[in-house]
Specification:
It comes from Melghirimyces thermohalophilus. It is found in: Cytoplasm. Its main location: cytoplasm. Among the domains are: about 110 residues, Alpha-Beta Plaits; about 100 residues, Chitinase A, domain 3 (Roll); about 60 residues, no CATH class. A hairpin with a 2-residue loop joins strand 7 and strand 8. The longest helix has about 35 residues. It contains twelve helices and eleven strands. The strands form three sheets. Strands 6, 7, 8, 9 and 10 form a five-stranded antiparallel sheet that branches. A four-stranded antiparallel sheet has the order 1-2-4-3. It is an alpha+beta fold.
Length: about 425
């Protein structure tokens, strides 16, 4: 096999692969054995047609497609390894030569990992930032605990306020006609959550149970349903029920209910200590992230769009999982917020570009500084992971090996060690 890589533009190029006629002939043999199983020719049992008769009747060309599908993946992978390129996307395959008793030649147009020209990554400085714990921080955390212990109670009298949980019927009309997806019965909504289009929830404030009201809103110009975008709609709303959070008193009894402490002061002291631990971790993350960002900003990279799109795919998938944990699908989220998927993807783009750039720069620094991860370090990480999962180390190892996870752990450790290197070489190093 022969392989030749020719860069054509930025991070794209053409990999020309030549497979000798003997290897392609073997692929034709495999293709014949596969195809002939389903071939019927008068005078022969199904699947028992001799090769010469098959080729005379159907032509050897009828085997080419299957032979190509057999040869290309293996030959492409071998050519990638031989030329040392690092593809970041699936190749576009074009057949250059496909004839019997001649070498099979194909071209793979592919995007490869870009060259990284490192800038300054040592002696970087991290701006000072306050990570101290204030009384306000403690009070805010205590408030969250109080809200978690709160109880939703029905408001018999009174008006809807921000953060109330309401149950409503609604039906929307445009130019006097109802529209699809614009109605629901006994729908539960937290006022001020931003689930509905702008202006809807604000007009619920002040309503009383069993009151009916018409709410006028205008759909955003970029609303995902084009037939509704920019149009004024009138919603007929009936309020069935209002629930409001009733909070417990912040006293010693509260502390005893939510913790192992006897007094509220002891609980506050514990909150303060835990916040200090968290702030210390936040400070460490801040330093590490800032150094990575600075090193990435100082480097020169022509980011392949396909790498950014792959990262956006990953981020969007994670976002969908978060929504599902809240009982909301992505389609429902888009309907509530009036956004299209393309708009959401665009919102992720800047962060995706930063992440791809940072990863490429860290890989380049690791190579420049000869950062390596030995088997003992991987074993230690596997041991920690097994303890966290409550399973045997060997069981976890086999599970990860089957999924390629051990190599992923090695890569993550290398990145972590590379960031450690940035920290130890920074101006802020202790």
């Amino acid at each position: 096999m022969k392989a030749n890589w020719e860069k054509t533009e930025n991070n794209r190029g053409v990999l020309t692969v030549e497979v000798d006629e003997q290897k392609f002939s073997k692929a034709l043999d495999q293709a014949f054995r596969k195809v002939v199983k389903n071939v019927n020719v008068p005078g022969f049992r199904k699947g028992k047609v001799p090769r010469p008769i098959f080729e005379k009747r159907f032509g050897v060309e009828s085997l080419y497609q299957d032979a190509v599908e057999i040869v290309v993946p293996e030959a492409y992978q071998a050519a990638v390894e031989e030329t040392g390129i690092e593809p970041v996307d699936q190749p576009e395959i074009d057949i250059d030569q496909l004839e019997k008793d001649k070498p099979f030649i194909f071209k793979a147009t592919v995007t490869v990992k870009p060259e990284v020209k490192l800038g300054e990554y040592k002696d970087l400085e991290v701006p000072e930032k306050d990570f101290s714990v204030s009384d306000k921080d403690v009070e805010e955390e205590l408030k969250k605990m109080q809200e978690r212990q709160g109880e939703l109670v029905v408001v018999e009298d009174g008006q809807v306020e921000e953060k109330d949980r309401v149950m409503i019927d609604f039906e929307g009309f445009i130019d006097g006609e109802p529209f699809e997806g614009g109605q629901a019965e006994k729908y539960t909504l937290e006022v001020g959550s931003g689930q509905f289009i702008p202006g809807f929830e604000e007009q619920l404030v002040g309503m009383k149970p069993e009151e009916e009201k018409e709410i006028t809103v205008t759909f955003p110009e970029d609303y995902q349903a084009e037939e509704l975008a920019g149009k004024e709609a009138v919603f007929k709303v009936k309020l069935h029920e209002v629930k409001r959070m009733r909070l417990p008193e912040l006293d010693d009894e509260f502390a005893q209910d939510v913790s192992e402490f006897d007094t509220l002061q002891e609980l506050k002291d514990d909150i303060e200590n835990k916040l200090k631990e968290q702030k210390s971790q936040d400070e460490d993350n801040y330093k590490r992230n800032t150094l990575v960002e600075k090193a990435a900003e100082n480097a020169e990279i022509d980011l392949p769009e396909v790498m950014v799109e792959h990262e956006i795919d990953h981020m969007l998938g994670h976002f969908e999982q978060q929504l599902q944990m809240q009982g909301v699908t992505l389609d429902q989220y888009m309907q509530f917020t009036g956004q299209e998927k393309s708009t959401i993807r665009e919102q992720f783009k800047e962060d995706a570009e930063k992440k791809v750039r940072a990863n490429l720069v860290l890989e380049a620094i690791a190579a420049e500084e000869n950062v390596e991860v030995d088997d003992e370090e991987v074993d230690q990480e596997l041991k920690k992971l097994a303890e966290q999962m409550g399973r045997e180390e060997e069981e976890v190892r086999k599970l990860l090996q089957a999924q390629g996870g051990v190599d992923q752990i090695r890569d993550e450790l290398k990145i972590r060690k590379t960031v450690d290197l940035l920290v130890s070489n920074s101006k802020n190093a202790a």
